[in-house]
Amino acid sequence: TDTLVIAIDGPSGSGKSSVSKAVARHFNLEYLDTGAMYRALTWYCLNEKVDVEDATALVTAARTFPYVQGTSPDEEVIEVGGVDVREAIREPRISEAVSSVASNLEVRQILIDLQRRFIAEAKNGMVAEGRDITTVVAPDADARVLLTANEEVRLARRGLQLGGTQNKDQLVHQVSERDKKDSKTTSFTEAAPGVTLVDSSDLNFEETIDAVIAAVNTAL
Ligand code: C5P
């Protein structure tokens, strides 16, 4: 096809979202944050008092989820039933519950179908970012990148993002333990065949963007 699809995966705190948005701007593409979809569904379940441990209730919620997401890298739009949830989905209560929601395979299939639809409908092409984009959602993407950083760096970046007031135990809980839970359903610690690994441990933000752009250009 003539539209460009770029898949970027990585663990929590790897800088995926900000790097992916910058890469989308560089190539003039749309942008899809798939983590936001799992977070918004989790917000919806908590709001509707759906027990996230009840698989049947969870799948019903995923099927009826009234979701709207924008695809511009410059203006985030995330709505559930007309409610703007951009800030609410970043709250710790969501980060703590989201892995349970994302571990349900039927729920995943519903969101994966939706993600593939977003990608197919992106007229300008798209950068899609998450945990399983390079391997499951878009293994046929034009360029696929796994963005990592060592744990110490990811904890430090997450600490900055959260305002630097968290103690290390809370951070480890929010970053490393979530990654451990997520690794049971998605594979984002090693690059699959054909996926370019970009390790940003020793790179600043601009250098990381340049490294990902270089990896994309090499893959094209
Ligand atoms: O990327 P972010 O930290 O916002 O993702 C939130 C959660 O959504 C992850 O911890 C994971 O449980 C889930 N997720 C997923 N597959 C994706 C993207 C996110 O399971 N492609």
What does this structure look like?
By secondary structure, the protein is α/β, with parallel strands linked by helices. 50% of the residues lie in helices and 15% in strands. The chain has nine helices and eight strands. A five-stranded parallel β-sheet has the order 2-6-1-7-8, sandwiched between helices. A hairpin with an 8-residue loop joins strand 3 and strand 4 (78-80). The chain starts with a strand and ends with a helix. 40% of the residues are buried. The model has no long low-confidence stretch (mean pLDDT 94). Bound molecules: cytidine-5'-monophosphate. Cytidine-5'-monophosphate (C5P) binds at residues 12, 34-35, 38-39, 98-99, 102, 130-133, 178, 182, 186. The site of cytidine-5'-monophosphate (C5P) has 15 residues, from helix 2, helix 4 and helix 8. ATP binds at residues 10-18. This is Cytidylate kinase. Its EC number is 2.7.4.25. Belongs to the cytidylate kinase family. Type 1 subfamily.
